[in-house]
Write a structure and sequence with these properties.
Blueprint lengths: L4 E3 L2 E3 L5 E5 L6 E6 L3 H15 L2 H4 L3 H17 L1 H12 L3 H22 L15 E9 L2 E5 L5 H14 L3 E5 L6 H13 L6 E3 L4 H9 L3 E7 L2 H14 L2 E5 L4 E5 L5 H13 L9 E7 H16 L19 H17 L2 E4 L17 E4 L6 H4 L6 E7 L5 H5 L4 E2 L1 E5 L3 H10 L4 E4 L14 E2 L2 E2 L4 H7 L1 E9 L2
Parallel strand pairs: 6-7, 6-9, 7-8, 9-10, 11-12, 11-17, 12-15, 14-15, 17-18
Antiparallel strand pairs: 1-2, 3-4, 5-21, 10-20, 13-14, 16-19
């Protein structure tokens, strides 16, 4: 298990200051890692800037770069079990998620963007100027800073890294300090695959390392996934420096359940949508709008299903719900549950830390509140944990306005047997992604990102190619 930083093709411990990453299932320290200084970040950016123009990287033909990404995908797939177990140990998600979703999705992204490398084209266009040939070409931006979150460390990194490399950029990665280990293991794979020194660099540490990366004058773009509050600070700093920026931020996703919906299917789908990765998902369904005539039945079924879930270490194959990532996150969740009780919401399930043999870890029992109103904080603020709220409605005409009555706009869910009703609501809801009659699924070819305070820009699909390139116009006189 690598614990050093990776800068310019070398593993380095940086200065003497370190920080710990913990196993959230036990609270035990997994490893001590170097806290990157401003000089460490500067060394990583300088290495990336030099690699950007080096023949070893800039001189690669598109087909050669595509083969390199395919090689990375193959090596990652060969070591899939190792990556899954490390992700589970460091982050807490059950192996069914890390091994069944996170790692395969990362492999898929490398292969998908390897396919794009040889297909990034410009256009020719007729101009109203005589004797001129006009064309465009897409070119890489330069050094890109990739700042990743702790909920899906490997997968979300690859969402950024694969298109950044496919388009010819170089990068400096700053993983979340809570979950840095699979990022360092991926750096080892990139090195093994033959990615030239300096093309990918990894610095570890907390907010100060991230701030140094955002502020560095040689960084052309920042791609950040994390909280809305931090995203606003990054956007402000990037705006002053006129850097490119992509932000995937917080969410408070509504799940609209029409009166005609199959309630049993809806409970199952929404339980997955709301409690995936212990609710630590920006797109988690957390506000359930249910017809008042069926709201009590839905809430009781949801509470019963939540109560029946098996909590435990993600390494245990019987575990359905793992720990949350840290003690700080555990305390934040418990704080919001206390707010919900004080606001008058009816607690139907959960509402406390898990005890017994799980007491040493960061486990919180899946929590369901009924009788929640639109103005309650638990219905408006992102909790990022296994806390679900049921909000009854009387008039279907109020659904879209209530769903949109939030600063967030990342995702939404709609459940109805009437496909016309479902699609009209999908058009009215302000969210970057809407799932109809299904839990959340993702694919490398489908654009991903938020509206309003849930971010700007898009990842995945062709949109990520656009996000990591800029267009150059070339005029040629034919006279």
């Amino acid at each position: 298990m690598r614990t050093d930083m990776y800068i310019n093709g070398k593993w380095t411990g940086g200065n003497a200051t370190t920080f710990a990453t913990h196993n959230p299932a036990t609270g035990e320290v997994l490893a001590e890692l170097p806290e990157a200084t401003v000089s460490d970040v500067d060394a990583a950016v300088e290495a990336a800037a030099a690699a950007f123009v080096s023949p070893a990287w800039a001189g690669l033909l598109p087909a050669q770069r595509a083969r390199l990404l395919l090689r990375v995908a193959d090596l990652l797939e060969e070591r899939a079990d190792e990556f899954a177990r490390l992700e589970t140990t460091d982050q807490g998600q059950p192996l069914a998620i890390s091994g069944g979703f996170s790692v395969p999705n990362a492999v898929e992204h490398f292969r998908y963007y390897a396919g794009w490398v040889t297909k990034i084209t410009g256009v020719t266009a007729p101009l109203s100027v005589p004797d001129v040939d006009y064309r465009t070409r897409r070119e890489p931006l330069g050094v890109c800073g990739l700042i990743t979150p702790w909920n899906f460390p490997l997968m979300i990194l690859v969402w950024k890294l694969a298109p950044a490399l496919a388009t010819g950029n170089t990068v400096v990665v700053k993983p979340a300090e809570q979950t840095p280990l699979t990022t360092l293991l991926l750096a080892e794979v990139l090195e093994q695959a033959g990615v030239p020194a300096g093309v990918v660099n990894v610095v570890t540490g907390g907010p100060e390392a991230g701030k140094a990366l955002v502020a560095h004058p040689k960084v052309a773009k920042i791609s950040f996934t994390g909280s809305t509050a931090v995203g606003r600070e990054i956007a402000a700093e990037a705006g002053r420096a006129l850097k490119r920026v992509s932000l995937e931020l917080g969410g408070k996703a509504p799940s609209i359940i029409a009166a005609d919906a199959d309630l049993d299917a809806v409970v199952e789908g929404n339980l997955m949508s709301g409690l995936l990765n212990s609710g630590q998902v920006c797109a988690a369904a957390t506000r359930f709008y249910v017809d008042r005539r069926r709201a009590d039945e839905f809430a009781e079924k949801m509470a019963g299903a939540a109560d029946s879930m098996t909590l435990g270490s993600g390494l245990d194959e019987n575990t359905q719900l793992g720990p949350v990532v840290s003690r700080e996150q555990l305390e934040q969740i418990d704080h919001y549950v206390g707010i919900g009780k004080a606001e008058g919401a009816q607690l139907l399930a959960g509402g406390s830390r898990a005890g017994g043999e799980l007491a040493g870890g960061y486990f919180y029992r899946p929590t369901v509140f009924a009788g929640v109103t639109q103005d309650m904080r638990i219905a408006r603020e992102e909790i990022f944990g296994p806390v679900l709220t049921v909000l009854p409605y009387d008039d279907p005409g109020e659904l879209a306005p209530r769903a949109n009555d939030t600063e967030y706009g990342l995702a939404a869910y709609i459940w109805s047997r009437d496909i016309g009703v479902a699609n009209r609501l999908a058009h009215q809801v302000k969210a970057g992604t809407v799932w109809i009659n299904m839990p959340p699924l993702l694919d490398a070819g489908a654009a991903w990102g938020g509206m309003k305070s849930s971010g700007q820009g898009r990842e995945m699909g062709w949109e990520a190619i656009e996000a990591f390139t800029e267009v150059k116009s070339i005029w040629t006189s034919l006279a």
